[in-house]
Amino acid sequence: MLFVYKTVDKEGQEQNGSIDAPNIDLAISSLQRRGLIIVSIKPEIDRKERFHIVLPFTRRVSYKEIVMLSRQVATLFEAKVSVLATFRLLAQESLNPILQKVLLSVVDDIKGGISISAALGRHPKIFSDFYVNMVRAGEESGKMAESFVYLADYMDRSYALSSRAKNALIYPAFVIVSFIVVMILMVMFVVPKLSQVLMETGQELPIYTKLLIWTSDFFIMFSIPLALLLLFLGIYLFRYVSTPKGKYSFDRFKINVPYVGRLYRKLYLARISDNMNTMLSSGISMVRTLEISGDVVNNEVYKKILVEAGEAIKAGSAVSGVFSQYPEIPGVMVQMIKVGEESGKIGFVLEKLSRFYEREVGNEVDTLVGLIEPALIVVLGVGVGVMLTAILIPIYNLAQGI
Fold first, then answer.
1. What is the dihedral of CA 329, 330, 331, 335, to 10 degrees?
2. Which terminus in the chain has less CB density within 10 A, N or C?
3. In this structure, CATH architecture of domain 2-50
4. C-alpha gyration radius of the chain
5. Where are the chain's structural domains?
């Protein structure tokens, strides 16, 4: 990496130049050994980067890219490719400029003498605490390739599980939102024109037609206040959910809402079991495993349970005994963990639990989709039918009178 510097020598003469070094600390040390006093030093901006514009929606590294990166690192390590060559090659092949820059930074840090886990830990927005600890466990055990294989397998399963649950909810959400938007457009733009024609005929309108016309007038008259109210509520909810108390309340609501809550519960239990199994298999302690699992589970309710369980285990309690105190942890999971503790095969039990809950998530998704589709058909049919009836019957009566 090239650094541009400005220095002063012992005679007080200024010198400008550049120096190639793995990182800024080594560059400073090299200049100081020459007897130079550093006035300023900074990385040289590459010409390509100088004119490179990163759009807002590209300023992130997706979960899928980290999964692919882990799989590639594992493959290259198994092929006995050196650490520096591995990360340098992956940086060159990366299509994401953010990830490419991070990997080059990791290469520079490793060249500077720090460990892989420490280099990755300098980028917490991309490499989670779980990820860094798994890599550190691989360094300590001398099984780096196996650690990245564990990581890739775990992240593959986690990504597939989360994607399946999200995709199951995208379709009904899209249909419901589209239906609401179409209904609002009909009420605000189509119904007023038809109601004007019906009112001019002087006929007595049915009660449901009057109700539809009243709804249309209400939306037209109060459209701006309603839009502002919705905007205010949206901002308030967003800010509330961003607070610790709001996030905890929202996460508790997610696991308690009918039908969907059951899916979320099993998704989080599968994530906890799989994460604990992966970390314990890598030689990480139970206390540290529970602490990191709390950060990975992505639910404040279960995070609190795992953190409290870690504190209780420090005091000498068993995992199964602590978990049994929380209704969010099902009895079957508590009993299986207890069997694993007594037999000394808790990793094996957690692996079976994670596979069990993965299948349960799949079954819940299928059941939820099976229930939502007919429910949507009924709701959409009733909504469209009521609106068409309210509009067409007066028109039909008018035609009959003619």
1. -70
2. C
3. Roll (3.10)
4. 30
5. 2-50, 62-156, 172-402
- In terms of Cβ atoms closer than 10 Å to its own Cβ (0-12, 13-18, 19+), residue 267 is buried
The per-residue pLDDT for range 134-146, each reduced to its tens digit, is: 888 788 777 788 8
The residue assigned the tokens 């090299």 is 30
Centre a 10 Å sphere on the Cβ of residue 309 and count the other Cβ atoms it contains. Answer: 25
Quick one: tokens of 293? 């699992």
pTM score of the predicted model:
0.67
Write the DSSP assignment of 57-88 as a string of letters.
Answer: GGSS--HHHHHHHHHHHHHHHHTT--HHHHHH
Instruction: Give tens-digit pLDDT for 202-252.
Output: 777 778 888 888 888 888 888 889 889 999 999 999 999 889 899 999 999
Confidence band for 335, pLDDT divided at 50, 70 and 90: very high
DSSP state of 119: H
- Look at residues 263, 302, 294, 262 and name the one whose alpha carbon lies nearest to residue 276: 294
Domains 2-50 and 62-156 share a fold: no
Q: Is 2 helix (H, G, I), strand (E, B) or coil?
A: strand
Distance CA 157, CA 270 (A): 10
Domain covering 172-402 in this structure, CATH number: 1.20.81.30
